[in-house]
Amino acid sequence: MSGKTILVTGAARRVGRAIAREMHATGANIMVHYRQASAAAEALIAELNALRPFSAACLQADLQDLEVLPWLVSCTVDRFGRLDALVNNASSFFPTPFGSIDQAAWDDLVGSNLKAPLFLTQAAAPHLLAARGAVVNITDIHAERPLAGYPLYCAAKAGLLGLTRALAIELGPRVRVNAVAPGPILWPEEGFFDSTTRAAIVAHTLLERAGCRQDIARAVHYLLEDATYVTGQVINVDGGRSAHL
Ligand SMILES: NC(=O)c1ccc[n+]([C@@H]2O[C@H](COP(=O)([O-])OP(=O)(O)OC[C@H]3O[C@@H](n4cnc5c(N)ncnc54)[C@H](OP(=O)(O)O)[C@@H]3O)[C@@H](O)[C@H]2O)c1
């Protein structure tokens, strides 16, 4: 990946940061997108640039604002001269009890998990086509097997999974489009799952443990660099939880 450029959304913290670090270690330049985590984003690019000067930069944007999406792409190309890969990782996540779903929840969950990946990929497409690049969308095992209490998030991720397959058609044969569907990797910071629920989720994985953020990063790495004959696919990285959900 040396000399190539990857834009990773929601990359300042947690899983996105692990993806940025993993892909930077391949020799790629990384554009770190963030929304609120400015200190974390600055710290990450300082870390990456210390390893390899001028190899990382960051951009702030709320992905609900469609007008900034072409700007994210053009800034990345201006900074690094090309765009080879896009990782749609940014996501909002919260419960939406059916009967009280409102427009704001729709805008937030569908906006970050489905709408922004579509329009960002559309903006990036000319560069990805020129580079014969790749897209990885981070979905969720609950895209295919919904989680009770989270109908809107699950539907948005299901849309992102469908979009992955549809864009593999639209962008083929030059650009590969795939998804990684995490299972239990990092618990939400908002504490949506209590300790009993967490224990039940982990017990339901075939590997009887939660994963770690590097498990997702390594799957993204495989899809971006090694999976040259793979497109329109999803890899469940979930300790086997989806095998018997
Ligand atoms: N963690 C898990 O176990 C797990 C399980 C299943 C699926 N996933 C999926 O894996 C990916 C990474 O998981 P994660 O837990 O690391 O995600 P996360 O911490 O919940 O969110 C990642 C980032 O998304 C950004 N974001 C949210 N809404 C945004 C918006 N409207 N505009 C711009 N950025 C926005 C936030 O950036 P700022 O902090 O800068 O505001 C946040 O740091 C997500 O797609 C998630 O759905 C994770």
Short note summarizing the structure:
This protein has 245 residues and is of the alpha/beta class. Helix content is 45%, strand content 14%.
Strand content: 5-15%
Fraction of residues in H or I helices? 40-55%
Order of SSEs: EHEHEHEHEHEHHE
Number of helices: 7
- Give the strand order, joined by hyphens, for the main sheet: 3-2-1-4-5-6-7
How many E-type strands? 7
**Any idea how many domains?**
1
Query: What is the residue-mean pLDDT, rounded to a whole number?
Result: 98
Uncertain regions: pLDDT < 50 for 5+ in a row?
none
Straight-line N-to-C gap: 36 Å
What would you say the CATH architecture is? 3-Layer(aba) Sandwich
Main sheet attributes: strand count, strand direction, barrel closure: 7 strands, parallel
CATH domain class name: Alpha Beta
Supply the helix-strand structural class. Answer: alpha/beta
Bound molecules: NADP nicotinamide-adenine-dinucleotide phosphate
C-alpha-based Rg, rounded: 17 Å
EC number: 1.1.1.100
GO molecular function: 3-oxoacyl-[acyl-carrier-protein] reductase (NADPH) activity
Enzyme class: oxidoreductase
Pfam families: adh_short_C2
